[in-house]
Amino acid sequence: MNLQVINPLDYRDWDEMLLSTHGYSFFHTSHWARVLHESYGYRPLYFSVIKGGSLHFCLPFMEIRSRLTGKRGVSLPFTDYCDPVSDGGLHFQDMIGCLTEYGRRSGWKFIEMRGGGEVVFKTVHPYSKYYGHTLGLAEDEDGIYSLFRSSTQRNIRRAEREGVRVSVFGTLEAVREFYRLNCLTRRMHGLPPQPYFFFRKIFEHIISRNHGMVILARYKGQAVAGAVFFHFGKKAVYKYGASDKRYQHLRANNLVMWRAIREYCSRGYKRFCFGRTETGNRGLRQFKNGWGASEEIIRYYRYDCRRGSFVIGDPHVPEFHNKVLNKMPVSVLRMIGSVLYKHVG
User: Fold this and answer.
1) What pTM was estimated for this model as a whole?
2) Number of domain units in the chain
3) ω before 191 within 30° of 0 (cis)?
């Protein structure tokens, strides 16, 4: 099969090869790989078949080495979904034996695959499930708007009536402003925020290179909501969203999302992904369903390299730590995040 394990950071024209494949996403690019590598020291290992300068198959992994959580391969850390890229001639089942053998030889504790395995693993229970939502884009903004749920349209109009103003940014200052909102949102959910240096890397390798943008909503001059978006080829993805809950009644998040959709429509993008949603997060699922997007299931699979079998997860484990963390100061949560995230992956 001429399977190679390569590092896209060292491979010339990697991103250009991706654009000629079927099923590529932003998360397969060298830009995202560089953010993960430089932020947390993960080692890129992209299982690929390249012939005549063309990419025929790719399943990207990052090797995580942690004293807390063990050595393992994840495709990919902090990534919503990562289906294999294939030209149709080669399929995931052709590679699974090579992958598991590599994991065993490398001393991996387990292998985690985020999407793309549902066809291969028909009889395997996924480790976890999420919802995904995707909206097809067109130049006709009115046509797109007509697909929205009536409540979504009302919330957009309400934000406009209340005087909320949204703007698109590609600056580090906007990233800092978003990060402030992100820390507030993560605290509300009882979670530590990603460290700020991670968002600096996002700016350095994605936003500053015109593969991402920040949209901020302001009310009376103050940023009250915002989101970070990535794009590559003709596909865009909503990656991070945050807001100040004191201004939730303004429905600024709706105006942020509408501005992003309009922006990508005007640039000729064809697909807009809303990222993943946990199955238990009914509010976020309802929000995303209000945009006329199609809903699908994203399945994660975890293979135990030592036992030689797939792991069945428990999606109903209570998160007791959330009730503790949402009482902590943001400064403490930031310190926790800066220490722990590289071990989580």
Assistant:
1) 0.94
2) 1
3) no
